[in-house]
Amino acid sequence: MVDTYLKLYQPRHPYPSITAIASSLNFTHITAVPTSKYLTENGVSPLFTHELIEAATRVNYGQNVDDIHALEGMVSMAANGAHSVAGGNWQVFERWAKESGAKTHLKTTVQHLRQSNSGKWHLAVEGADEKIYDAVVLAAPYKSTGIKIEAADLNLEKAFPPVDYVHLHVTLLSTTAEHPQGSYFFPSAPETPIPQTILTTSSGSTEPEFNSLTYHERIQRAGQPPEYIVKIFSKERVTDEWLEKLFGAGTVGWTRRKEWDAYPRLPPTTTFPSVKPTDGLYYVNAFEPFISTMETETIASLNAVDLLLHDRYGRGVCGYKSDEYPNEVKPADFAYGWDC
Protein backbone atom coordinates (compact mmCIF):
# COMPACT_ATOMS: atom_id res chain seq x y z
CA MET A 1 0.00 0.00 0.00
CA VAL A 2 2.83 2.43 0.84
CA ASP A 3 4.52 1.60 -2.48
CA THR A 4 1.26 2.44 -4.26
CA TYR A 5 0.97 5.74 -2.39
CA LEU A 6 4.54 6.66 -3.41
CA LYS A 7 3.32 6.91 -7.01
CA LEU A 8 2.02 10.34 -6.03
CA TYR A 9 5.65 11.52 -5.91
CA GLN A 10 6.27 10.60 -9.54
CA PRO A 11 5.84 13.13 -12.40
CA ARG A 12 2.14 13.05 -13.32
CA HIS A 13 -0.73 15.16 -14.52
CA PRO A 14 -2.53 16.99 -11.71
CA TYR A 15 -5.63 15.19 -10.49
CA PRO A 16 -8.92 17.03 -11.13
CA SER A 17 -10.65 15.31 -8.19
CA ILE A 18 -9.99 13.14 -5.15
CA THR A 19 -12.14 10.46 -6.77
CA ALA A 20 -9.60 10.39 -9.61
CA ILE A 21 -6.73 9.98 -7.13
CA ALA A 22 -8.51 7.13 -5.32
CA SER A 23 -9.25 5.41 -8.62
CA SER A 24 -5.68 5.77 -9.97
CA LEU A 25 -4.29 4.18 -6.80
CA ASN A 26 -7.03 1.51 -6.72
CA PHE A 27 -8.07 2.68 -3.25
CA THR A 28 -11.75 3.39 -3.95
CA HIS A 29 -12.96 0.05 -2.59
CA ILE A 30 -10.86 0.57 0.56
CA THR A 31 -12.43 3.92 1.47
CA ALA A 32 -15.89 2.46 0.86
CA VAL A 33 -15.94 0.14 3.91
CA PRO A 34 -15.13 0.35 7.64
CA THR A 35 -11.68 -0.78 8.76
CA SER A 36 -13.11 -3.67 10.77
CA LYS A 37 -15.11 -5.06 7.83
CA TYR A 38 -12.26 -4.75 5.33
CA LEU A 39 -9.75 -6.47 7.60
CA THR A 40 -12.14 -9.27 8.52
CA GLU A 41 -12.86 -9.92 4.84
CA ASN A 42 -9.11 -10.11 4.23
CA GLY A 43 -8.45 -12.70 6.93
CA VAL A 44 -7.38 -10.49 9.84
CA SER A 45 -8.52 -11.69 13.25
CA PRO A 46 -11.29 -9.51 14.75
CA LEU A 47 -9.43 -9.65 18.07
CA PHE A 48 -6.29 -8.24 16.42
CA THR A 49 -8.36 -5.58 14.68
CA HIS A 50 -10.28 -4.42 17.74
CA GLU A 51 -7.45 -4.62 20.26
CA LEU A 52 -4.36 -3.55 18.30
CA ILE A 53 -5.45 -1.65 15.22
CA GLU A 54 -8.24 0.16 17.06
CA ALA A 55 -5.72 1.31 19.66
CA ALA A 56 -3.85 2.98 16.78
CA THR A 57 -6.94 4.55 15.17
CA ARG A 58 -8.02 5.96 18.53
CA VAL A 59 -4.66 7.58 19.26
CA ASN A 60 -4.18 8.84 15.70
CA TYR A 61 -7.74 9.88 14.79
CA GLY A 62 -9.92 9.49 17.89
CA GLN A 63 -12.14 7.02 16.02
CA ASN A 64 -12.93 3.30 16.27
CA VAL A 65 -12.38 0.65 13.59
CA ASP A 66 -16.13 0.20 13.11
CA ASP A 67 -16.45 3.89 12.21
CA ILE A 68 -13.33 4.89 10.27
CA HIS A 69 -12.83 3.88 6.64
CA ALA A 70 -10.31 1.15 5.92
CA LEU A 71 -7.72 3.27 4.13
CA GLU A 72 -7.33 5.63 7.07
CA GLY A 73 -7.41 2.71 9.46
CA MET A 74 -4.37 1.25 7.74
CA VAL A 75 -2.69 4.65 7.57
CA SER A 76 -2.80 4.53 11.38
CA MET A 77 -0.47 1.52 11.22
CA ALA A 78 2.03 3.13 8.83
CA ALA A 79 4.04 5.31 11.21
CA ASN A 80 7.16 3.12 11.12
CA GLY A 81 10.18 5.21 10.11
CA ALA A 82 8.41 8.53 10.66
CA HIS A 83 10.51 11.59 11.46
CA SER A 84 9.87 14.88 13.23
CA VAL A 85 11.62 18.23 13.51
CA ALA A 86 13.14 19.28 16.83
CA GLY A 87 11.03 22.15 18.12
CA GLY A 88 7.93 21.21 16.10
CA ASN A 89 6.99 20.18 12.56
CA TRP A 90 5.27 23.55 12.08
CA GLN A 91 8.72 24.98 11.36
CA VAL A 92 8.77 23.16 8.01
CA PHE A 93 5.73 25.06 6.76
CA GLU A 94 6.84 28.37 8.24
CA ARG A 95 10.16 28.01 6.43
CA TRP A 96 8.43 27.10 3.17
CA ALA A 97 6.40 30.30 3.35
CA LYS A 98 9.49 32.35 4.16
CA GLU A 99 11.64 30.84 1.41
CA SER A 100 8.88 31.27 -1.18
CA GLY A 101 9.11 35.04 -0.95
CA ALA A 102 5.33 35.26 -0.70
CA LYS A 103 3.69 38.09 1.19
CA THR A 104 2.17 36.72 4.38
CA HIS A 105 -0.66 38.36 6.31
CA LEU A 106 -0.85 36.73 9.72
CA LYS A 107 -3.75 37.34 12.12
CA THR A 108 -5.86 38.38 9.15
CA THR A 109 -9.52 37.39 8.89
CA VAL A 110 -10.93 36.80 5.41
CA GLN A 111 -14.65 37.51 5.48
CA HIS A 112 -15.87 37.33 1.90
CA LEU A 113 -14.72 35.88 -1.42
CA ARG A 114 -16.63 36.86 -4.55
CA GLN A 115 -16.03 36.08 -8.21
CA SER A 116 -16.90 38.91 -10.59
CA ASN A 117 -18.20 38.57 -14.14
CA SER A 118 -14.61 38.95 -15.38
CA GLY A 119 -13.57 35.81 -13.48
CA LYS A 120 -11.44 37.76 -11.01
CA TRP A 121 -11.77 37.03 -7.31
CA HIS A 122 -12.54 39.86 -4.90
CA LEU A 123 -11.29 39.10 -1.41
CA ALA A 124 -12.62 41.09 1.52
CA VAL A 125 -10.51 41.17 4.68
CA GLU A 126 -11.62 42.52 8.04
CA GLY A 127 -10.27 46.03 8.56
CA ALA A 128 -8.64 46.34 5.12
CA ASP A 129 -9.44 47.23 1.54
CA GLU A 130 -10.74 44.59 -0.85
CA LYS A 131 -8.08 42.83 -2.92
CA ILE A 132 -8.48 41.34 -6.41
CA TYR A 133 -6.81 38.07 -7.48
CA ASP A 134 -6.71 35.89 -10.59
CA ALA A 135 -7.01 32.70 -8.54
CA VAL A 136 -7.47 31.68 -4.91
CA VAL A 137 -6.26 28.58 -3.04
CA LEU A 138 -8.29 27.73 0.06
CA ALA A 139 -6.09 25.76 2.46
CA ALA A 140 -8.33 25.37 5.50
CA PRO A 141 -11.46 23.34 6.24
CA TYR A 142 -14.18 25.41 4.58
CA LYS A 143 -16.66 24.98 7.43
CA SER A 144 -14.22 26.37 10.00
CA THR A 145 -13.21 29.47 8.00
CA GLY A 146 -16.50 31.34 8.18
CA ILE A 147 -15.75 32.76 4.72
CA LYS A 148 -18.75 33.63 2.55
CA ILE A 149 -17.98 32.47 -1.01
CA GLU A 150 -20.00 33.62 -4.01
CA ALA A 151 -19.60 32.61 -7.64
CA ALA A 152 -22.16 32.20 -10.42
CA ASP A 153 -21.36 28.56 -11.16
CA LEU A 154 -20.56 27.47 -7.58
CA ASN A 155 -22.78 24.99 -5.75
CA LEU A 156 -21.52 25.29 -2.17
CA GLU A 157 -23.23 22.16 -0.88
CA LYS A 158 -21.75 20.03 -3.66
CA ALA A 159 -18.31 21.65 -3.59
CA PHE A 160 -17.97 21.61 0.20
CA PRO A 161 -20.05 18.75 1.61
CA PRO A 162 -20.27 18.78 5.41
CA VAL A 163 -17.26 17.24 7.16
CA ASP A 164 -17.49 16.74 10.92
CA TYR A 165 -14.37 16.95 13.06
CA VAL A 166 -13.25 15.10 16.17
CA HIS A 167 -13.00 17.53 19.08
CA LEU A 168 -9.87 16.45 20.94
CA HIS A 169 -8.57 17.32 24.39
CA VAL A 170 -4.81 17.12 24.91
CA THR A 171 -3.40 17.32 28.43
CA LEU A 172 0.33 17.74 29.06
CA LEU A 173 1.60 17.47 32.60
CA SER A 174 4.54 16.78 34.83
CA THR A 175 4.39 14.18 37.59
CA THR A 176 6.73 12.54 40.04
CA ALA A 177 4.80 9.28 39.65
CA GLU A 178 6.95 6.84 37.68
CA HIS A 179 3.82 5.03 36.55
CA PRO A 180 0.05 5.63 36.73
CA GLN A 181 -1.64 4.26 39.85
CA GLY A 182 -2.67 0.63 39.71
CA SER A 183 -5.69 1.49 41.83
CA TYR A 184 -7.23 3.49 38.96
CA PHE A 185 -7.25 0.48 36.65
CA PHE A 186 -7.57 -2.35 39.19
CA PRO A 187 -9.27 -1.16 42.40
CA SER A 188 -9.17 -4.67 43.85
CA ALA A 189 -5.46 -5.07 43.02
CA PRO A 190 -3.94 -1.60 43.49
CA GLU A 191 -0.35 -2.90 43.48
CA THR A 192 -0.64 -4.10 39.86
CA PRO A 193 2.29 -2.67 37.82
CA ILE A 194 1.07 -0.23 35.14
CA PRO A 195 3.04 0.56 31.95
CA GLN A 196 4.05 4.07 30.88
CA THR A 197 2.23 3.80 27.56
CA ILE A 198 -1.47 2.94 27.56
CA LEU A 199 -3.66 2.77 24.47
CA THR A 200 -7.37 2.00 24.64
CA THR A 201 -10.16 0.31 22.70
CA SER A 202 -13.94 0.60 22.74
CA SER A 203 -14.57 -3.12 23.05
CA GLY A 204 -14.69 -3.27 26.86
CA SER A 205 -17.76 -3.06 29.05
CA THR A 206 -17.29 0.69 29.63
CA GLU A 207 -16.00 3.50 27.42
CA PRO A 208 -12.42 4.45 28.44
CA GLU A 209 -11.99 7.93 29.90
CA PHE A 210 -9.05 8.63 27.59
CA ASN A 211 -7.78 7.55 24.18
CA SER A 212 -4.13 7.30 25.07
CA LEU A 213 -1.62 8.05 27.82
CA THR A 214 2.10 8.28 27.13
CA TYR A 215 5.14 9.08 29.25
CA HIS A 216 7.52 11.08 27.03
CA GLU A 217 10.47 12.43 29.01
CA ARG A 218 12.23 11.97 32.34
CA ILE A 219 13.66 15.14 33.93
CA GLN A 220 16.18 15.00 36.75
CA ARG A 221 16.87 18.20 38.69
CA ALA A 222 19.61 18.37 41.32
CA GLY A 223 18.34 17.49 44.78
CA GLN A 224 14.81 16.69 43.56
CA PRO A 225 12.98 13.49 42.66
CA PRO A 226 12.66 12.67 38.95
CA GLU A 227 9.80 14.27 37.05
CA TYR A 228 8.04 12.73 34.07
CA ILE A 229 6.33 14.53 31.18
CA VAL A 230 3.06 12.83 30.23
CA LYS A 231 0.62 13.41 27.36
CA ILE A 232 -3.04 12.35 27.47
CA PHE A 233 -5.51 12.37 24.56
CA SER A 234 -9.19 12.31 25.56
CA LYS A 235 -12.65 13.10 24.22
CA GLU A 236 -13.51 15.20 27.26
CA ARG A 237 -11.56 17.56 29.50
CA VAL A 238 -9.82 15.72 32.32
CA THR A 239 -9.99 17.47 35.70
CA ASP A 240 -7.24 18.04 38.24
CA GLU A 241 -9.08 15.67 40.59
CA TRP A 242 -9.08 12.95 37.92
CA LEU A 243 -5.34 13.43 37.36
CA GLU A 244 -4.68 12.99 41.08
CA LYS A 245 -6.74 9.82 41.04
CA LEU A 246 -4.68 8.56 38.09
CA PHE A 247 -1.20 9.56 39.30
CA GLY A 248 -1.61 9.93 43.05
CA ALA A 249 -2.31 12.86 45.39
CA GLY A 250 0.41 15.52 45.38
CA THR A 251 2.34 14.02 42.45
CA VAL A 252 1.15 16.30 39.63
CA GLY A 253 3.14 19.50 39.01
CA TRP A 254 2.26 21.81 36.12
CA THR A 255 -0.57 21.06 33.70
CA ARG A 256 -1.24 22.42 30.20
CA ARG A 257 -4.49 21.81 28.31
CA LYS A 258 -5.36 22.24 24.64
CA GLU A 259 -8.59 21.44 22.82
CA TRP A 260 -9.50 21.81 19.16
CA ASP A 261 -11.09 20.09 16.18
CA ALA A 262 -8.08 17.92 15.53
CA TYR A 263 -9.02 15.73 12.58
CA PRO A 264 -12.01 15.00 10.37
CA ARG A 265 -14.36 12.15 11.06
CA LEU A 266 -13.60 9.61 8.37
CA PRO A 267 -16.58 7.32 7.76
CA PRO A 268 -16.64 5.02 4.71
CA THR A 269 -17.20 7.05 1.55
CA THR A 270 -16.66 7.17 -2.18
CA THR A 271 -17.51 10.86 -2.60
CA PHE A 272 -15.21 13.75 -1.74
CA PRO A 273 -15.14 17.56 -1.81
CA SER A 274 -14.10 19.32 -5.00
CA VAL A 275 -10.42 20.06 -5.64
CA LYS A 276 -11.56 22.81 -8.02
CA PRO A 277 -15.00 24.02 -6.85
CA THR A 278 -15.18 26.51 -9.74
CA ASP A 279 -12.87 28.30 -12.15
CA GLY A 280 -9.98 29.97 -10.34
CA LEU A 281 -10.77 28.44 -6.93
CA TYR A 282 -8.75 25.49 -5.57
CA TYR A 283 -9.40 23.58 -2.35
CA VAL A 284 -6.46 21.87 -0.67
CA ASN A 285 -8.51 20.32 2.15
CA ALA A 286 -10.59 18.30 -0.30
CA PHE A 287 -7.96 15.62 0.33
CA GLU A 288 -8.72 15.29 4.06
CA PRO A 289 -11.67 12.86 3.93
CA PHE A 290 -9.47 10.57 1.80
CA ILE A 291 -6.31 10.60 3.93
CA SER A 292 -5.76 13.13 6.70
CA THR A 293 -2.10 13.68 7.58
CA MET A 294 0.38 16.55 7.39
CA GLU A 295 2.29 14.65 4.71
CA THR A 296 -0.72 14.10 2.47
CA GLU A 297 -1.70 17.77 2.79
CA THR A 298 1.64 18.61 1.13
CA ILE A 299 0.63 16.29 -1.73
CA ALA A 300 -2.77 17.98 -1.86
CA SER A 301 -1.11 21.41 -1.94
CA LEU A 302 1.21 20.38 -4.76
CA ASN A 303 -1.73 19.02 -6.73
CA ALA A 304 -3.74 22.23 -6.28
CA VAL A 305 -0.85 24.43 -7.41
CA ASP A 306 -0.05 22.09 -10.29
CA LEU A 307 -3.68 22.25 -11.42
CA LEU A 308 -3.73 26.05 -11.12
CA LEU A 309 -0.57 26.40 -13.23
CA HIS A 310 -1.93 24.09 -15.94
CA ASP A 311 -5.19 26.04 -16.02
CA ARG A 312 -3.50 29.43 -16.33
CA TYR A 313 -0.27 28.70 -18.20
CA GLY A 314 -0.61 25.23 -19.73
CA ARG A 315 2.37 23.94 -17.75
CA GLY A 316 2.77 22.31 -14.31
CA VAL A 317 5.15 23.05 -11.43
CA CYS A 318 8.02 21.32 -13.23
CA GLY A 319 7.32 23.06 -16.54
CA TYR A 320 5.76 20.05 -18.28
CA LYS A 321 2.99 20.57 -20.81
CA SER A 322 0.19 18.00 -20.74
CA ASP A 323 1.90 15.86 -23.39
CA GLU A 324 5.44 16.18 -22.02
CA TYR A 325 5.31 14.19 -18.77
CA PRO A 326 8.09 11.56 -18.69
CA ASN A 327 7.08 7.90 -18.68
CA GLU A 328 10.15 6.47 -16.97
CA VAL A 329 9.96 5.63 -13.25
CA LYS A 330 12.07 7.99 -11.15
CA PRO A 331 14.31 6.85 -8.24
CA ALA A 332 12.67 6.00 -4.92
CA ASP A 333 13.88 9.23 -3.31
CA PHE A 334 12.53 11.43 -6.14
CA ALA A 335 9.81 13.91 -5.18
CA TYR A 336 7.85 15.57 -7.97
CA GLY A 337 7.85 19.32 -7.52
CA TRP A 338 11.18 19.28 -5.68
CA ASP A 339 13.43 17.20 -7.95
CA CYS A 340 12.14 18.33 -11.36
TrEMBL record:
Residues 2-311 form the Prenylcysteine lyase domain. Pfam families: Prenylcys_lyase. Its cofactor is FAD. One of its GO terms (molecular function) is prenylcysteine oxidase activity. It comes from the Eukaryota. Keywords: FAD, Flavoprotein, Glycoprotein, Lyase, Oxidoreductase, Signal. SUPFAM superfamilies: FAD/NAD(P)-binding domain. GO terms for biological process: prenylated protein catabolic process; prenylcysteine catabolic process. Belongs to the prenylcysteine oxidase family. This is Prenylcysteine lyase domain-containing protein.
